[in-house]
Amino acid sequence: MATNISIPLLKKTSTTFTDESRIQAEGQKDGEKNIPQMGSYVTAQFEQALIAHGEQAVQRIYEKASQRIAHLQPVFQACLKRVEELEIRLKPIAEAYEARKKELGRDVSILFPSILHLVLIVFLAIGEFPLNTVVFRLFGEAEYLTYVMASTLAVTIPLLGLFIGIHMRHSIPPLAGNILIGILTPLAVGAALFSISVLRNTYIFAQVSPTTAMTVNQDKLAYSLFALNTLVFFAALVSSFFAHDPDEKLDSSHSSLFFLDRKINSVRKELFRIGTKMNGEIKQSKSQIEQVRALTNERVALYRQTNMRYRSLLPPPTFRKGPEFPELKWWSEVSLNGEMGRPDAG
């Protein structure tokens, strides 16, 4: 209960102490007494109290800002170190890539974008899962075993197509690979379309004669599932074939550059975000401190003006210069390219 009462009392005292009427009253009282003395180089006690009051607010702002900046600075340094490490790794790969380009006399030749290629592989794996789930449920095993078996094939078939497609692209001449892909892909698509027609007919027969549909299903289901899995395999194979360059060295360098560059850009974005936040904290804190000290200057000026109005002697030398504030050690700002800036003058 006592704590709840003391807080408002402190606030009221603080407000009264810096109130304009209180400052004028103290200035008049000290002026009538010629305080400070005409030749004094020491400021009046009330003026010292005004400055001390303002510096208490400055220290609160400074300490809170220091805590926030101290929390952000290690994260910024870690991101900066990560960018430097990635750039060191990137340099020899970029040099090897440029050297291989000069040897071949051409740039990398990729017909299918790498991002779309990876998205397609993931999509094929997702689509393969329910297809295999239907098949493995026929074994009558536990549900979790059905999901394990179905997910294993859903991952394995697209990945096999991916690796075989890359191997074909690098190991056989481009013309032979294009001919092989041009022949096998239409066959796989045609077989899949035929299997879909068979399944559609089975469904139609099931509406008319369930017995006939069951017989047809037993005869054609195995072929239909094989054709659909083959289509998934060939989709992964063809996308991988056209998503890589025929030259293995150039393709490897290009892939490494692509992924490292994306990783560096991601870390740089985080570095820029943290650096911007740090600079914002520093500028905001400096601005708040400047505002507090400007207000202190106004209060001191009001005290001195009132003091001089009621003095019978000349004002002291201290009135001819502005209030002196303790020097603060300002924080170092960071530049947008990730380098630490120099400390500002206090």
Give a quick precis of the structure:
The protein is an all-alpha fold. It has helices at 2-17, 20-32, 45-104, 114-136, 143-171, 174-208, 210-242, 248-309; strands at 332-334, 340-343. Helix 3 (45-104) packs antiparallel against helix 8.
Q: Any idea what the shape is?
A: elongated
DSSP, total strands = 2
Can you write the helix and strand succession as a string?
HHHHHHHHEE
Numbering strands along the chain, what is their spatial order in the largest sheet? 1-2
What distance lies between the first and last C-alpha atoms, to the nearest angstrom?
A: 43 Å
Low-confidence stretches: 1-14, 338-346
How big is the Rg?
Answer: 39 Å
Largest pleated sheet = 2 strands, antiparallel
Mean pLDDT: 83
**Estimated structural class:** mainly alpha
Count of alpha/pi helices: 8
Helix share, percent: over 70%
Indicate the proportion of strand residues: under 5%
Care to describe what's here?
With 346 residues, the protein is mainly α. 78% of the residues lie in helices and 2% in strands. It has 8 helices and 2 strands, in the order H-H-H-H-H-H-H-H-E-E. It has a two-stranded antiparallel sheet with strand order 1-2. Strand 1 and strand 2 form a beta hairpin. It is elongated and about 115 Å long. Residues 1-14 and 338-346 have low confidence and may be disordered.
